[in-house]
TrEMBL record:
<keyword id="KW-0378">Hydrolase</keyword>
<dbReference type="Pfam" id="PF13715">
    <property type="entry name" value="CarbopepD_reg_2"/>
</dbReference>
<feature type="signal peptide">
    <location>
        <begin position="1"/>
        <end position="20"/>
    </location>
</feature>
<protein>
    <submittedName>
        <fullName>Carboxypeptidase-like regulatory domain-containing protein</fullName>
    </submittedName>
</protein>
<keyword id="KW-0121">Carboxypeptidase</keyword>
<dbReference type="InterPro" id="IPR013784">
    <property type="entry name" value="Carb-bd-like_fold"/>
</dbReference>
<dbReference type="GO" id="GO:0030246">
    <property type="term" value="F:carbohydrate binding"/>
</dbReference>
<dbReference type="GO" id="GO:0004180">
    <property type="term" value="F:carboxypeptidase activity"/>
</dbReference>
<keyword id="KW-0645">Protease</keyword>
<keyword id="KW-0732">Signal</keyword>
């Protein structure tokens, strides 16, 4: 079994229903003095953005009913986010920004000898280590603030402004309002959450053609693609197969109490003094050391396809939900795992007939999980991903309003 490594990845919590109705979000942006012209207003997860006019007003038109997160950015003010629900009519909001006091006064920052290490770790686990990640750059790592809790063995990161990420592999400039980042040194579990907005980079026709191709590859087989297909009950047509995988006790491994007692007996002399021991790999001590190194559980794969009708249930008019015990073993057959993935420690064991299909494992830790028609997942900490989906991170995401061309 490969080394367990998981990460929780928030898929943007916005929903757009494919309805003929069209509404808008309008509003004003102000501070304690008055209305603010020139404030940038975005919709999280989308390529939808605008700027307030001379009267501090903005309009985000042609929106379907759904749940949206508005992001507002302006130099000298703290980033702002507001959740808006559109049901059967347009919505008007009033947004008040607060001054960013750290930008208004000189701040003396004590150099952190570990900061370069923290930034490198953050990039690996936030941007990723895929080929696309090699073409991604965080342009303003200075906004990151790290806290390394030595006792809990957890590294957290916050940002005092939007992270600006330039993805030259997919042709996007991403503004990401980081809400949480957590890396557990002990469990190797990564969790991050935030609100992104997307802007197309400018490039030649050949670059744009290459970006379209890479975006299709990034979307196909992704978490977003999976949940969108799951919502629409089109998994098989979209190339997905779901099996179940469960952890079962390793019956060939002795109990810890027996293993530890025998190792202690073989390594301790009279009066509690340790003996000088040599062994050749076939003696009793070697046997018990090998017993201790064996995993306590083994993974059992059930190759029977999961019945989607029993797995997915409607929650309300906008959401569907899942509640399951054993892990979901998700096979995507329309793309193969890329060669660099084999060196990532994420590769999952598989039967020979599955070859190099992209395989991910999904475990539910906080049931149930609810999701939207556009592939957005509502509960940010509900799921742990292993395999291919743990390998792909920010460098391989596309906007929630991304539409795959029929030719792709």
């Amino acid at each position: 079994m490969t080394k367990r490594f998981a990460f929780l990845f928030i898929l943007f919590f916005c929903c757009v229903n494919a309805l003929a109705q069209s509404f808008s979000i309008t509003g004003t942006v102000s501070d304690k003095v008055g209305l603010l012209p020139g404030a940038a207003v975005y919709l999280s997860g989308y390529k939808i953005a605008t700027v307030t006019d001379n009267d501090g007003k903005f309009v985000l038109p042609r929106l379907a009913p759904g749940n949206y997160d508005i992001l507002v950015q302006m130099i000298g003010f703290l980033p702002y986010t507001k959740n808006v629900l559109i049901s059967d009519k347009s919505v008007n909001v009033s947004i008040a920004l607060q001054e960013n006091t750290t930008m208004l006064k000189e701040v003396i920052i004590k150099p952190d000898p570990n900061r370069a290490f923290y930034i490198a770790l953050f990039k690996d686990y936030f941007i990723g280590k895929t080929p696309n990640a090699a073409e991604c750059t965080i342009l303003n790592t200075d906004v990151l603030v790290f806290d390394d809790d030595k006792d809990a063995r957890i590294l957290t990161a916050k940002a005092n402004d939007f992270l600006i990420i330039e993805n030259k592999a997919l042709g996007y400039r991403i503004k990401y309002l980081l809400q949480d980042f957590e890396y557990n040194y002990k469990t190797k579990i990564i969790y991050f959450a935030g609100l992104p907005s997307f802007e197309d980079l400018k490039g030649s026709k050949s670059k744009q053609k290459n970006w379209l191709k890479k975006r299709a590859i990034a979307y196909n087989g992704s978490i977003q693609h999976f949940f969108k297909s799951l919502y629409n009950n089109t998994l098989a047509a979209e190339g997905f197969v779901i099996n179940k995988i469960a952890d079962i006790p390793n019956t060939s491994r002795k109990p810890d109490s027996v293993i530890n007692a025998n190792i202690k007996r073989l390594t301790t002399g009279q009066a509690g003094l340790s003996n000088l021991i040599t062994f050749n790999g076939t003696d009793s001590l070697s046997y018990w050391l090998k017993q201790r190194s064996q995993p306590k559980t083994l993974s059992a794969l059930n190759r029977k396809d999961v019945d989607i009708d029993t797995l997915v249930k409607p929650f309300n008019s906008d959401l569907k939900m899942m509640n399951f015990k054993d892990g979901l073993y998700v096979i995507y057959k329309d793309e193969k795992e890329i060669p660099s993935f084999n060196f990532s420690a994420h590769r999952q064991n598989r039967p020979p007939e599955l070859n190099n299909y992209q395989i991910s494992v999904v475990n539910l830790v906080e049931p149930p999980v609810r999701f939207y028609a556009n592939g957005g997942v509502l509960e940010t900490r509900s799921l742990i991903y292993k395999g291919y989906w743990a390998y792909e991170k920010i460098a391989d995401i596309v906007p929630m309003d991304y539409i795959l061309s029929p030719k792709q």
